[in-house]
Amino acid sequence: FCGVDRIFTLLSTGPITLTTEGRAHTVHRGEPQEFPGEANVTMTLGQSPPQKALNLMLSRGHAQGEIEVFSATEPLRGRDQLSPHRGDLVAVVVFDGAVTLRDGTRVRALEAILPTRTAGAAGLARALRGAQAIGAGPATVATVQVLRVSPCADD
To answer: How many CB atoms lie within 10 A of CB 13?
Structure first.
């Protein structure tokens, strides 16, 4: 993936071994791993069953991104947990458990919440404020943020 920066985040229980350019390291669930798309990358499951991952791919020089994983044990707070730190909030992915939105919509494990065309990223954050984990335990949630970068921006 020439010209692409990747952020790989394991959604399943793991762990896995991720080898990037010959350097192996153990990756646990919810730990974002960043590497260039040109890198030679292999993954070893070991005794783990098949795994699922969130793979954010960004055009180098045009966008930067961030994936932040947290446990939603109480109602989500827009300012603390859902406000973009570096860019636009483009998705929220439920790793496990389930989340109920303000309007009563249930979002289950491995489902994503995306901004609407009319409300955009700000509307997504508003819709999620006060969302609550449902079921027996907390939900694990990841926010995906993207910042558009001007190719001519000073470093």
So the answer is: 13
* Residue 61: alpha-carbon gap to chain centroid: 20
pLDDT per residue as tens digits for the range 96-153: 888 887 778 888 888 888 876 666 666 666 666 667 666 656 788 887 888 877 766 5
3-state per-residue secondary structure call for 8-53? EEECCCCCEEEEECCEEEEECCCCCEEEECCCCEEEECCCCCCCCE
Q: How far apart are the first and last CA of the chain?
A: 24
Tally Cβ neighbours within 10 Å of residue 124: 21
Q: What 3-state DSSP class applies to 154? A: coil
pLDDT for 24: 95
Pairing of strands 16-20, 4-10: unpaired
Residues facing 64 on adjacent strands: 147
* Strand 63-72 relative to strand 16-20, pairing: unpaired
Q: Which two tokens stand for residue 53?
A: 């991952």
Enter the tokens of residue 67: 């994936």
* DSSP conformation letters of 47-85: T-----EEEEEEETTTEEEEEEEEEE-S---IIIIIS-S
Going by pLDDT thresholds of 50, 70 and 90, the confidence category of residue 27 is very high
